[in-house]
Structure formats: C-alpha cells, structure tokens
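seq as requested:
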Amino acid sequence: VEKNCEVTRIEKRGDVYRVELSNGGVVEDVSLIVSAIGVDPSPNVTWLPPEIERAQDGGIAVDIDMQTSCDGVFAAGDVCTVVRDTEMAPGTHTTWFQMRLWSQARSMGIRAAHCILEVQDQMASDLAFDLFSHTTTFLGKRVVLLGSFNGQGLETACHGGDDITFFSRVSGDVPGDRSFVRVVIQHGKVKGAICIGKTDLSEVLENLILDGLDVSAFGADIISENVDLDDIFD
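struct tokens:
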C-alpha cells in the first residue's frame, strides 16, 4: 500500500503494467490497478452562503426533492447529503441509503431537474429512492447490490439488530462461469442481497425487498438452485 502519493504514469508491458508514483516509487509487474478517488464533500468549502445548511458530514443538506434549506436552491450528487424529512418510527428500516456512487448522483440530478420543473409527480423520479440498488462490473462479472446488502443499518433498526441471517451460495463448476448470491434476512423478510455473475435472481430479490413478504418458510432454500423464485413470487 502506497500512501500520500499519486499515480503519475502507467505503462503496459505485455499482460502486466509498470506504475510510477509521485513519491518517486515504481511498482513493477502489476496485474490489476484500482483507481479510487475521494467523493466525500469537503467541510471547508467557504463559498457557500450561511443560509444553506450543511449536514454533519459536511455535505449540503437536502431533502428527498434535492431541495436545500434555501428556497429555490437545489443540490445533487456527491456534494449533498440526503436528510430525511422526519425521524423514522422505532422498529422501521428504509431500504434506501446514500452511498456516493455515480448511479446515485445521476438519480439525484434527474430528481432535482424534475423538482425544479415541477414535474416530479408525472415523472415518478422518487422511485429511485425506494431501494438502494447499484449495478457494476468487477473482473468481468456483473455485480448487483440491493438494499442493505451488507446488513447496513439493520443492527440498530429493529430490536437491537437481532434475528439477522445471511444465506450464501456459489454456483458453477468452471471458475469463469461461477456465480455468487447472498441474501440478508431479518425477521423473515429479505432486507438486502448481492448477486455476482449470471444469477437471474436480482429482479425477484429486488421485488421481495420492496414488497416485504415473509420468506421465513424457505430458510436457506430461498436461494437454492432447485427453487424457482420467479414462479413462486411472480
């Protein structure tokens, strides 16, 4: 791990790379490069007027309509922090949470535009905030993250976070064709899921999270290859 430096040059050499760093270091024979840049809002921005409230993390505080504390001023993307209008009732848990991703930034921008034009009801852009979902690819495989895919927030949402169960499965005999599924269950209801590779389960799991159906009778079979969830919950 190289800290406090930047990548200044990447040179491809066959199947590997040579990486030069701003601290003078050189890393040879690199097979994978992951570039991560900060997306957290800076609390030190001074050009914002004091009328625009900031959230605890330094982001511009907005509601679900991307409206700031200043009437007629909207913000969207990584610079803002969505603050719920009201406190959630004890024992409840939302399936959407903010994670500074390009997909959420895009949804926020669309929502802000619709609210500015006052067409949000016709366009139903608030549906993007019903469920956390993000789709990407990693090492050539499709990755779908849904809801509290890692149990986020469940430990404090209901009864101290009890009755949280993770069910996982790995399918496929050939390494390149393998897939992975994990679901998060709390009190018999699907709260989150991860799907990697070709699973054909992301849509039905998304619906199960949103509908809040009790699936406790299935147990670990909820992700069994011998159970066709599409037929059962169609």
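Residues 147 and 157 are 14 Å apart (CA to CA).
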